Amino acid sequence: MSAPKSLLVQGYEVVIGFETHTQLATKSKIFSRASTAFGAEPNTQACAVDLALPGTLPVMNREAVALAIRLGLALGSHIAEHSVFARKNYFYPDLPKGYQISQFEIPVVQGGEVSFLLGEEKKTVRLVRAHLEEDAGKSLHDAFHGMTGIDLNRAGTPLLEIVTEPDMRSSLEAVAYAKELHKIVTWIGICDGNMQEGSFRCDANVSVRKPGAPLGTRREIKNLNSFKFMQQAIDFEIRWQIDQIEDGHPIQQATVLFNPDTGETRAMRTKEDAADYRYFPDPDLPPLVVSNEWVQEVRATMPELPRQMAERLVRDYGLPEYDAATMTQSPAMAAYFETVAKASGQPKMASNWIMGELSRRLNAQEKDIAESPVSAATLAALLQRIADGTVSNNAAKQVMDALWSGIDSNLDAIIESKGLKQVSDSGALDALIDDVLATNAPMVEQFRAGKDKAFNALVGLVMKASKGRANPQQANDLLRQKLQ
Amino acid sequence: MKELHQLGVAELAAAIANKKTSAVEAAQLLLARARQHQALGAYLAFNEDATLAQARAADVRIAAGERGPLLGVALAHKDIFVTTDFPTTAGSKMLAGYQSPFNATVVQRLTDAGAVTLGKLSCDEFAMGGSNENSAFGAVLNPWDASRVPGGSSGGSAAAVAARLVPAATGTDTGGSIRQPASFTGITGIKPTYGRCSRYGLVAFASSLDQAGPMARSAADCAALLSAMAGPDIDRDATSLDHPAENYSAALLTPREGTSATQPLKGLRIGLPAEFFGAGCTPDVLAAVRGALTEYEKLGATLVDISLPRTELSIPVYYVIAPAEASSNLSRFDGVKFGHRAAQYNDLADMYQKTRSEGFGPEVQRRIMIGTFVLSHGYYDAYYLQAQKIRRLIAQDFQQAFTQCDVIAGPVAPTVAWKIGEKSDDPLANYLADIYTLSTSLAGLPGMSVPAGFGAGAMPVGLQLVGNYFKEGELLHTAHAFQLATDWHTRAPQGFWQ
What per-residue confidence (pLDDT) applies to A161? Predict the structure, then answer.
């Protein structure tokens, strides 16, 4: 796969692969019964197993496996009937056993792909695998003067590490992939997606090469925990690598960290310090067996996936692809849209309003659509009032403001009290138009003399006289009748 | 009338049930006797208050009319099982004074059955060794000859049971650590099928091999303990077998089909692997073993020649796999969370290095290094993976053998107990002495040691019996029939009967 010329950076092709650690939304840890809830006092959610006390043993949490199966089903992966947990051995104070239990040679989820739109273009990123593993604890270097604190609450939290092929060719594509993956894992309910709390952590493997050349040496940017930093970090890394190569310095394989304050990446360790992890199958855990029945059981609980749903919205509601993709950003938004579209009978108007008026207001208050002060049923009713000519689109925005502020929740009462109802009554409009024609005789003359522009001016005067409440189409029709 | 310390498990349970004595009285007497014989080095820890509280609780249950094969019976645990009432050291300076917040499943099951824990028994450090000389807290002496080792790694358990300090004890067996000390001290011990007893609460040595089992003065007493110890524990140990507990005591009394009182083992085919009877075994041990086999023939059993062709390979295979697992299992002893931490260090790496150099003894360090090496990049395939392949072949050899016989018999060890210090500078000699017990462990099969006579230096010799998976009942039955016909298991070392 070679990038089009337009994507080259200073004549270099960018190659990016991702490793994403998604924290699985289980109630208890992957190998113990301790809680996984975030934010508790240090070491209050670490049981004897998490502390690796002598004599303790890991026992697989089947809930975590079920969540891994969900991801595999969502991404069209192969679910391995037998997968194996290995020990990755290294010493670190926040790694209580002195090894991490992780699937190494045989992961539970194999292959699959993530597809998404990058602008108008459909992109597909292939997955290598997704494997189950346990998280380590946290070292608190700043909490105690001259000492390091260890918090083992996070130790043993289930992670699913999702690894892609090096299929991405720009930072934009990488971010779009990460956003799509984030959407999927939250959509299917396997991860809460909270990037600040570390529930969705991305490592980007970045390399550059001249088009057609073999893959360049990669550097891995660790722990990208916001989409904004992700793009900044990758862009910096690309420029840095190209500068190095142009200056005649070959790239050394390394693990780097992004510093958001400086906007730079910096090497943490190079390949020379790479540890020998002495992986071997964990003798405490028999191979993980996932029966076909188990997979079918999980399949029966799978929701409609965002991509399938977007296709359906295009098919059933005639939405443009862009609108359909936006309406399927989250299960809450999709549900909101479908309720509005069905109740109002105005799907395109629904997506316009959700993307425009609703999103603008939600974003301003940093609210999720699930917390919208205006319910889908209310918005549907409002859109119906636009459709049946009760209010103009502009007047509806004023109604929306009133509904949003919560002063009144009765749609029709708001329209009434604010005098926003369109004048569609032909008697009232008749009188209004007669008045305008009478007081603007010169303009009528101009129209009769063949100046079409004068007609538009007269419509404007009618609308003005109605204080914007006249139904524009009706005003138009009546005026033309009277002038003939 | 025997004295209390002379009673086995069943006899003591009966004496307590019949109010001839009480659990408290028995515990007090045995504690006093244990202290009197502290020179043996068998016990590492007592907690008299906890012991007597357990004994009183047993007496209350008995007074309320409850009866059980272990109710009120005094036991002691190998110090590799974690316990809430006693510190747990695993024989290592690394864990000196370590207090576990929970009981091992095996300990808890025995306690729930009403057993009273007298204390913790010495073992080779982290169960690594076959002489109990690797304990950080001193060697254990063999009650039959204080200049000799009691075997290991469950050497404290073996010495205490043989010296009539306690009627029975728990042990663990990774490559022979129940069977070999049982053989060296003239007691009976059984290592069940791998996964039959929960490993939860065993300080891990080699996860794919470690297995708990009872050590006592008869097969009948072992059966009583094992019935309480075995059974699934799948919520705590993923390698625990989901196979219901059995009443092994009932299995002892159930006659084999088609047998008679004089021929209770009629139809039983005992396989004798040629590899167990070769030049590697000393003549005194072979003579005792052959004597026992003659006795089995009298009981109606048939002797069948079989072959376990990869017996010799079991030594290198075991000494790759067990250290590999140990090197990883022992990583948690890093000075961070529990156990020993060096007093002075410069940085994290220095803290790890000093802590582990000070905390682990030489044999443990040697095995960590071997294990680290065989798992290292570039060596893994040649050592660890290769060993796993041969391990599967060894297990297949046994299955082949069991098409020809019901039980396999041979010596437990090539020699009787050796002199303290005799092999301590020669790790290879120690490893070679494990030749007859390692293959059973690698295959995960149940095996036991039954007193079969005496060899050089008037030291006890054990007969090893190996059964197929889950055949503990048949093994115990086979041993019990022998013990009904012989009295080797009733012999006590001089000075320890009274």
Answer: 98
pLDDT tens sequence across B172-225: 999 999 999 999 999 999 999 999 999 999 999 999 999 999 999 999 999 999
CB of B421 closer than 8 Å to CB of B139: no
Q: Which chain A residues are within 8 Å of B237, Cβ to Cβ?
A: 57, 59
Q: Which of B100, B206, B332 sits opposite A52 (nearest CB)?
A: B332
Give bridge partners of residue A82 from the DSSP assignment. A289
CB distance B211 to B194 below 8 Å: yes
Rounded-to-integer distance, Cα A33 and Cα A47, Å: 8
B23 occurs within a structural domain = yes
- Is residue B78 annotated as a catalytic residue, yes or no? yes
Where does residue A39 fall: left (phi above 0), alpha (psi -120 to 50 degrees), or beta otherwise? left
- The two tokens of residue B323 are 């250290």
E-strand ranges in A280-345 read 280-281, 288-289
User: Which residue does chain A place closest to B332, by CA atoms?
Assistant: A97
CB-CB contact of B268 with B478 (8 Å):
yes
| DSSP label of A3 | -
Q: Which domains does chain A have, with CATH numbers?
A: 10-298 (no CATH), 306-417 (no CATH), 426-483 (1.10.10.410)
Domain of B193? 4-255+473-490
Report CA-CA distances (Å) from A126 to A48, A114, A130, A348: 39, 6, 12, 33
Instruction: Decide: A435 and A393 in contact? Cβ < 8 Å.
Output: no
Query: How far apart are the C-alpha atoms of A379 and A340, rounded to whole Å?
Result: 7
Within a domain: B269: no
Whether the ω angle into residue A83 lies within 30 degrees of 0, i.e. cis, is: no
Q: What is the pLDDT of residue A425?
A: 67
CATH of the domain at B248: 3.90.1300.10
Helix B362-375 and helix B314-329, axial crossing angle in degrees, nearest 10: 100
Tell me if B342 is assigned to some domain.
Answer: no
Are the beta carbons of B101 and A283 separated by less than 8 Å?
Answer: no
Contact status of B208 with chain A (Cβ, < 8 Å):
yes
- CA–CA distances in Å: residue B419 to residues A183, A216, B140, B226: 70, 64, 12, 32
How many domains, chain B?
A: 1
| Mean pLDDT (chain B, rounded) | 97
- Report pTM: 0.91
Cα(A7)–Cα(A3) distance, rounded to whole angstroms?
6
Q: Which element (helix H / strand E) includes B473? A: helix B472-485
- Whether the pLDDT of residue B59 is over 70: the answer is yes
Q: Kind and range of the H or E element at A18?
A: strand A13-23
Whether B322 is in a domain gets the answer no
CA A128 to chain centroid, in Å, comes to 22
User: Quick one: closest CA in A to B237, which residue?
Assistant: A57
Q: Percent of chain B at pLDDT above 90?
A: 95
Lowest average pLDDT, out of A278-282, A364-368, B309-313, B363-367, goes to A364-368
Q: Is B177 a catalytic residue?
A: yes
In what helix (H) or strand (E) does residue B269 lie, and over which residues does it extend? strand B269-273
